[in-house]
Amino acid sequence: IDFIVDAIDTLSPKIALIQFALRNSIKIVSSMGAGAKTDATKVKIKDISKSFNCPLAYMLRKRLRKVGISKGFKVVFSEELPDESAIIAVEEQNKKSMVGTISYLPAVFGCICAQAVMEDLLGLNQK
Hints:
This protein has 3 helices and 6 strands, in the order βαββαβββα.
């Protein structure tokens, strides 16, 4: 395996995959949340420790710190602040809030993940 591209939206399996990749020295890029965002020009590739304005990345960083991981893999995330009007909060037990996602943004995240993989495999943009 040369690279893993993670696009899991649920925290526990996402964390398990990241742990597996890092434990086995497999490169991984992880897609963060596209929900409540619209600006494709704000999608970036950075180390997990440098991600911001993303609720999924925040929760991921928090949970990963508990298992001793705070950096060391790339994520694709949006620097855009989430649009609160796109979030439907549900207060009932056993129900989850819904976050609206604009149709084109998940594809943009996927393309940027592919870019991260290709740049790494080709040795481009090594910072």
